[in-house]
Automatic annotation (TrEMBL):
Magnesium is among the record's keywords: no
CDD domains reported in the protein's UniProt record: Spt4
Matches recorded under Pfam families: Spt4
Protein name stated in the entry: Spt4/RpoE2 zinc finger domain-containing protein
Protein location: Nucleus
Coiled coil start-end: none
């Protein structure tokens, strides 16, 4: 994997280290294994405080997602622009995800004006929020 990255010393998010137990962060769509979220949290979303909190990992990530894209250069990737994730670290991202962020976290994100790929309960399907 690392050989594909020409600027290899650049910081990047963990990539999944096994083919099962994948979960996607509901905020940014980063795909990792449950254990990786539990060990390190989400590199893009430190404010979610996922590390070492099993309940948080459970509620802020989802196993219900479709497709994965490996994004190595967020700044000039059309995939990244399309996904609205160009400000995230290079890593593996879900193309589509289903899930509901806990309402109190959704509220926190709104207060901080942080975009979120998942919706709060009752707000309908997953959609990419406008960046701004
Ligand atoms: Zn995230």
């Amino acid at each position: 994997m690392a050989a594909l990255v020409d600027d290899a010393d650049r910081e990047m998010a963990d990539v999944p280290n096994s083919m099962k137990g994948h979960r996607a962060c509901l905020r940014c769509g980063l795909v990792k294994c449950f254990d990786q979220f539990y060990a390190e949290g989400c590199e893009n979303c430190p404010f979610l405080e996922l590390a070492e909190r099993q309940d948080r990992v459970q509620s802020c990530t989802t196993s219900n997602f479709e497709g994965m894209v490996a994004m190595m250069k967020p700044d000039d990737s059309w995939v990244a622009r399309w996904e609205g994730i160009s400000r995230n670290l290079p890593g593996v991202y879900a193309m589509r995800l289903e899930g509901e962020m806990p309402p109190q976290i959704m509220q926190f994100l709104r207060d901080k004006r942080i975009s979120c790929r998942a919706t709060a309960p009752g707000e309908g399907g997953s959609q990419i929020p406008p960046q701004g």
